[in-house]
Prior knowledge:
Blueprint: H1 4-101, H2 106-122, E1 131-141, E2 146-148, H3 150-153, E3 158-160, E4 175-184
Antiparallel strand pairs: 1-4, 2-3
Amino acid sequence: MATLSEQLSRLYVKSSSLTKKRIQEELKTLEEKIVEYEGKIHELDVVKKTLEEKSVELASVKVRLESEQIEAQKQTDAFNEEYKKYLSSKEELEKLQAQIRASYSTEDISSFLNKMINDFNTSSASDTDVAKYIINNMDVDLKVRIYDDSKNNGGKSFKFTAPSISETTEDSLSSIKITIQAVPK
């Protein structure tokens, strides 16, 4: 039988070889994990680089979109300004068209003046009982547009548009010359 010190010595050698074996196994496991983690770190670096590239690309797209938005706003503002001008012009045109619709032709004016002459000639109103007055002749020289003005005073009347004072000459003025004749009653 071996002595106690021999047994201890064998146990020490045995445990030391077991410990070395275990340490080697642990080291091998740790080395495998290090390799695995390095692979994961490499994968993460690739993902990080891809994200950085995408971030730069997104920033570029954002700048381009902001620029396009500013340009679109400018175009919208310009369109709105043109639309306001269009509405103003349309309103002016409608006013002019309304005036044109309310204007009269030469036949309308002649008819109105003939009726006025007939009404004057058939009326019996006179300041004297001795004579009756009739319109013998009417010479009309109109150089302006004539519009219906009956809405303002309820009767049938016309409105003459005159040229501006700066444009007024003898040739630009209209005239109505009436010859009235006294006829005995």
